[in-house]
Structures are given as C-alpha cells and as structure tokens.
Amino acid sequence: MVGAGIVGAACAKELAEAGLRVAICEQNGYAGGGATAAGMGHLAVMDDSDAQFALTSYSQSLWRELAQELPAEAEYLACGALWVAADEEELREVERKFRFYQNRNVPAEILDSKQLAEAEPNLRAGLAGGLLLTADSVCYPPCAAGYLTKRAAATGGNIFFGKKVTEVSESGVRLEDNTFLTAGLTVIATGAAAVRLAPEIDVHPRKGHLAITDRYPGFVRHQLIELGYLKNAHSTTADSVAFNVQPRVTGQILIGSSRQFGVEDAVAEGPMLSNMLARAIEYMPAIADLSTIRVWTGFRAATPDNLPLIGARPGYRRIYLATGHEGLGISTSLATASLLADEILGRDSAIPRSPYEPSRSVAVHA
Amino acid sequence: MNEVDVLVIGAGPAGMAAAMRAQESGARVAMVDDNWSAGGQIWRGVQNSHTRTPAGIRMFWGTQVVARGTAERTLLLEDSEKAFELAFDKLILATGAREIYLPFPGWTLPGVMGAGGLQALVKSGLGIQGKTVVIAGSGPLLLAVAAYLRKAGARVKLIAEQATTKAVSSFAFHMVRYPMKVTQATALKLSLHGVPYLRGCWVEAAEGEGRVQRVRLRQGRKSWTEDCDYAGIGYGLYPNTELAALLGCRLRTNAIEVNEWQRTSVDGVFAAGECTGIGGVDLSLIEGEIAGYAACGDTARASRLFGARSRAKRFAGALDRTFRLREELRTLPRPGTIICRCEDVQYEKLQQMSSFRAAKLHTRCGMGPCQARICGVATEFLFGWRTDSVRPPILPVRAGSLITRKEFQQESSITR
Question: Is the CB of residue A33 less than 8 Å away from at least one CB of chain B?
C-alpha cells in the first residue's frame, strides 16, 4: 500500500483483515498528513450521479458501523447536513433532491424558511429553506486514518513511516533510499500525487482553502452547505468558492470551501481566502466577528467525471489504483477499501464496481 | 505611493530606538504595537526617555499584524474596530521575545504563571500586597521581578535559579566589565536583601486545591515544599519570529538572522532587539538605533554604534552560557501533565509522536489560539521538535478582517 492517507489506511485495514500480508509505505512519519489532514471530514451522501450516490451511501453505512469502535479523538459526530436554499429557484432544487433521497430510502426533510432559521439561528434571515439529511456526519480525518492504520498493523500489517515510494512496478516498490520492497501486488493510494507513480492517469490537483475558528459551541449545529455548491464544485475549469461550514466536537467551526485548478503552490492565497470568507459571511453574518485561528490549504485529486479510480491499473496485472476521490475521499474511503478488496479477492461487491474502474476513461500508455 | 518610509513593528526598547533614529534621519515613521503604550514587556507602564513617543511618529496602538497585505510592501493590520492595510518602504521588526514556560506537574494551576507574566499582571492591577510569592526559573529577569513584587508589597519567599552557583558567580564576575550592569545589580541586591537566592534549584511540582498553595522545590538531593499564593516561574526568553518567518526572513537558532546593518535576508526588512537573539535591553537599544539609521541609509551614524553593539553582545553571550537550561528540567512532566494548554494535550500522548506536525495532527497539540507559541517552545525543549511553517494569520483574527474585498474592508485611517 503506497500512502497512509484515509484511503490507503482504509484499504490496508480491509486487505489485512481479509488475510493478506500488508505493508504500508508512507512518506510522512505519521498517517493522514496529506489531503486527509486538509479536508473537512464531512461524511456525506451525494446525489450528483447514481454512481456517486451508490458509493457515498454504501460508505456512509460502513462509517456508521465503524463509528461504534472509533476512538474519541476521531471526533465522529452525527450532526446531519443541511443544504441551504437561498431563493425559490434553489428551493425547487431542494424538492428535487428530496425526492431523489426519498426514493432511495435516505432520511431527508424539507425545511421551510422559518424551520431553517430555527435549525440554524446564525444563518442570515430570509433564506428560502433547506434540505436536512439527518444521517450525514463528520469526523476528524487524520485520527480516523491513524486508527485505520493501527487496525491494519494489529492484523499483522507492517507500517513503514517516513518511506517515500519513488517507483512502482509489477514486482514491488522502490523507495527513496533505493531499497526495493517486493510485493505480490501494489496499491497506489497517494491522492493527487498518484500521477507521479502512474503518469498516465487523468488526475489533477484541485486546491482548496479552509479556515478554523476558536471555540463557539452551538454557533453552528449541522454541516451547512449552500445549494450552489454543486455548481461550483463541478465546474472543472473556473476557480470557485462556496459556503460550507462545519461544527467540530470541540466547538470550533471549520469554514470552507474553495476550488482551484492549475495551482501547485500550497501557500494560502489572500484573494481566494478573502472570497471564501466573504461567501461564508454572506450566509452567516456573525462569522465576521469570530476569531479565526488557522488557515490552510490542500489538494484534492480530481478526475474528469468526478468519480474515483478504484481497481486494477490499466495495462498492469499487479498494480491497483485507489485515488481520484476529489472532495469525497474521507466519505468514500471505506467503500473504496471494500470494493478494492472485493476485486483483488474475487468477491462479489455490495454495489457495482464498473463506474469506478480506472479503465473506464484512462488512455493506456504502458 | 507608500504611506510611510519606515514602519516599525513593536514599541519596546528596540522599536522605540529604531523609530526615533529613523525619524531623526528625516523619514516618515509609523509604529505598530498590540499594547496601548510604549515600553514593550520590559518597560510596561514605565515612563522614561525611551517610552515617550516623539511628536510626528504615527502610532498604531492596540494593533496587531495579521498577515501580508495584498500588495508588495504592505501589511494587513487589525485593531479593536477594523482591519486595514499599511504600505511602507522599509520595515523594522522589533517583535521582542516571550517568556519560556516549561511544563511540570501542576504548572497549569491558577496562581502559577510566568515570572514576567506575574509582574505584568501586578502592573495591570493584580493585588499582590501581603501575598506570599515564590519566584523560580532562570535568568536575571527573576531578580528584577522579585524586586518589583517586593516593592509592590509581596512577601517574596525565595528565588530559585536553576543555573549552578558556579555559573552564576562567573556571570557576576563578567559583569564587572559593565559598570552600568554592576550598578543595577547592586541596586537589585539591596532591594532583595533578606530574600534567599538559591542556585541550582528548581520547582518540581506545584500543588494545591483549585489553585496553587505550595510548590515542591529541588536543590541537589534536597527536596522540600514552600507554601505560596503565587509562583512566578519563567525559564528565560524566546524570540518572537513568527512575522519574520511569514515574510520569508531567514532564521538562525530560533532568532531572526541579521547582518551588521540589522538587515534581514529579505530586501527592505530590518530587525532589532530580542527577536534577533536574546541580549537584554542595552543591546536592544543599540540594535534599534542601528536599524533606524540603516533603514534610512545613514550608514555613517549606524556604523558608529558597532563597537557598543559588540560590547553588549559579549554580555549577551555570557547570559546565554550562564543560564543554559539543565537536563533535569526535561524529566519533570509526568504522563498526565498537560503540555498544550489550549488543547489539553498530555505528555504521554506526545511521547508517542515522531514530530511536531504528527503531534499537531494526531493530538491537536499546538492547534489552539496561542498557535503553539507556548507548547511549541516546550516541545522543542522536551523532544527536540521544530514547529512547522508559519501561515497567516499569525495571530487569531476576526474572520471579517481577512476579507480584502473593498465592500468589507474599511479604509485605513492613515490614508484618509
């Protein structure tokens, strides 16, 4: 397993528990230091496409099971998510979403303007309404990844921290110090950096900013997302920001989100941050006076069709991919692990695997 | 066009000296300080020739630097009402130093604070009259604080200095070369008459119900407790380099690296005083003057101060050697001792971590509002970790202040 982010950690645990002898190579000295550390940790069910719904929904059920055993520092919080509609047009979208979820047995409720204000008193007055998804939850991803890594190790897995993989072949991986580790099969789970090991895949870094405040318990009660989010999230060219805030167990508030293509520099950018916070304040004016203690950035691994790459790397027999999760890596990590293990072990899967097969859209240069 | 020629960050001794010299050289000078008056930590509330701001220097009191501004050579500032950007031609960093707190069992009890911290609180009105105080830690500051508290009516029971008698005596011997220091030392000695100054002695633990009632001291094999109402414990000073790091200035052993003109590695940015290395007030004043002249291109007057600076630096070197922290202080925390106060992270959690970033992500150490200013120094001492890169905002800031869009940002008072 190359990478101990949330996806690599989940896959390692799944494969180790299925009886494989697993080793993880992670360039950092700890788990979850890449996009996993930068993400919000919203465990969402999404309705963008049937394939995305299937993966997020299956993964959410796995998270709910895992939550029973997660340590407190993983900060699992079943706070629900509220999609906020600013106007009548967005309210019609709320109704469409509601039917989508209802038809698929996902608990959902439509809130009118007054109910929305009661559910989230700090939202600005006069918003049209919202859609409450009660089963959505949040977690603190680095500790969740750390826990999954420990579980893999407890089942006999070897964890090599501080080992950067520079090359992957059919017979194993080469490390930065030129050591070669022989492996029956190798999984590349290094997020947006996967292109360094598998240059042919169509995965591009998509930069995001987040800010976190001091502790204000009760200020925000649900994961809040503006309905315009999907429009912004799925534009594959333009830079965008969206109102997306999250309550943490600590009482802190995470403020997002931004999306940028073509930027490789991790520096927090004033103008982007400024637009992102301005958007948040448009929806929640009182955020302006909250004390912001940190700002950071991270890189999502984006694919052209907004679906991850899970399964055999085209043109190779013993190399697998688990990347391209964009903003849903935390959400879909557990389902990813389950589907990947199914493929490797020749098991049937709970949901069809074909929409995520790397061969679907990858030009093979090997 | 730049609003000011020279912007000085920090109105302590170095900053004041820099601002005055820059103004003398004909520059338009502005100063920023997060306090409401000049003097910095050392001259908090003190009136002297260095803390009277000359007319013509524009003062931004109660103002902190948050981040770089949107344009080159600008900074984003925030005061209690608004955020604004300020443009400058030259920048002088005189951001001073903060007290080093090392964790030991009970150090988070109410009534236990830094030595300088306790003095600052008394200056701002904490009633100390008739209270029993133990002063401990390391460095000459302990003596100054003890003398101040005694004058304010405290019963200073003892001063516990972790450095050995031998080291402290040899330091005293060196001081003979600095007549002014000897005068100061003699005055201190007189005002501390009757207060035991224990060398090779440190606080192992603080105990009490709900607040400190006694501290456990160790001196060699001897260990005993002393009752007290307050314990002021400071282990010296640590340079404030966050702003410099944010601007890309090179650091050297925790301090801002400067050349002979007090110039940093970043063009147009100078630094002076404790933020360039702990050296005491005399060195800070001289460095400030040099930076003030040099920022205005007055190298002739700046270079005349080089000799004085070299002498003051020798004193600083002796200071550093004498009060080096002893190994035993690394062994004080117990498994349950809190190391990161903002996030309540205990020592045993950190022992399992491989780096500061690992600790940050997996235990939340350093993730709180102090942004690792306290636990970062402590974990550097305890584990040899280095804190990771500095990102804006360098201090907690209102979310609204980070918005640079015009409709949100109020105009800078200086441009009106």
Answer: yes
Q: What is the structure's pLDDT at A328?
A: 97
Residue A366 lies in a domain: no
Is A154 in the same domain as A116?
Answer: no
Rounded to whole angstroms, how far apart are CA atoms A49 and A46?
8
Residue A156 shares a structural domain with residue A250: no
Considering A249, A277, A300, which residue would you say is the last residue of a domain? Answer: A300
**Domain end (from A300, A316, A350):** A300
Is residue B404 predicted with pLDDT exceeding 80? Answer: no
Residues A351 and A228 in one domain: no
The more confidently predicted of residues B102 and A232 is: B102
B268 touches chain A (CB under 8 A): no
Q: Are residues A60 and A172 in the same domain?
A: yes
* B110, pLDDT greater than 80: yes
**How many Cβ contacts (< 8 angstroms) between chains A and B?**
102
What pLDDT sits at residue A37?
96
Q: Are A57 and A153 within one domain?
A: yes
Chain B residue with Cα closest to A294: B393
* Residue A97 and residue A237 in one domain: yes
**A358 pLDDT more than 50:** yes
Option in B368, B391, B408 nearest A278 (CB):
B408
How confident is the model at residue B188, as a pLDDT? 75
Residues contacting residue B72 through CB under 8 Å, at least 6 positions apart: none
Q: Are residues A160 and A174 in the same domain?
A: yes
Which of A30, A255, A271 is closest, CB to CB, to B404? A271
Residue A93 to residues A108, A133, A328, Cα–Cα distance (Å): 14, 14, 21
- Total domains present in chain A: 2
Q: Walk me through the domains of chain B, giving residue ranges and CATH numbers.
A: 4-98+238-320 (3.50.50.60), 101-235 (3.50.50.60), 333-404 (no CATH)
Q: How far apart are CA B349 and CA B297, in angstroms?
A: 52
Q: Decide if A166 touches B, using CB distance below 8 A.
A: no
Closest residue to B354, CB basis, from A30, A146, A289: A30
Q: Does A241 touch chain B (CB under 8 A)?
A: no
Among A7, A4, A55, smallest CA distance to A357 is for A55
- Per DSSP, what are the bridge partners of residue A259? A240
- For chain B, the farthest-separated pair of C-alpha atoms sits apart, in whole angstroms, at 66
What one-letter code names the amino acid at A363?
A
Which of A213, A279, A291 is most worth mutating to test chain B (most B CB atoms within 10 A of its CB)? Answer: A291
Q: Is B399's Cβ below 8 Å from some Cβ in A?
A: yes
- Give me the pLDDT at residue B405, please: 55
pTM: 0.90
Percentage of chain B modeled with pLDDT above 90: 74
Evaluate if residue B164 carries a pLDDT over 50: yes
CB contact under 8 A, A287 and B362: no
Q: Which domain holds residue A27?
A: 6-72+140-203+305-360
Q: Which helix or strand (DSSP H or E) is residue B203 part of? A: strand B201-207
Q: Are residues A218 and A347 in the same domain?
A: no
Nearest C-alpha neighbor of A347 from the set A358, A337, A355, A356:
A337
Is the CB of A275 inside 8 Å of chain B's CB atoms?
yes
Which residues of chain B have a CB within 8 Å of the CB of A281?
399-400, 403, 408
CATH number at A44 reads 3.50.50.60
Please, what is the average pLDDT of chain A?
A: 94
- The pair of structure tokens assigned to A159 is 């964890």
Q: What is the interface pTM, i.e. ipTM, of the complex?
A: 0.88
Q: Which CATH number goes with the domain that contains A219?
A: 3.30.9.10
Q: Do B396 and A214 touch (CB under 8 A)?
A: yes
Rounded Cα–Cα distance for residues A166 and A281 (Å): 43
Mutate to test the interface with A, among B402, B405, B406, B409 (most CBs of A within 10 A): B402
Q: How many residues are present in chain B?
A: 416
Which pLDDT value is given to residue A363? Answer: 43
Please name the helix (run of DSSP H) or strand (run of DSSP E) that holds residue A280, with its range, or none: helix A270-283
Q: Does B335 touch chain A (CB under 8 A)?
A: no
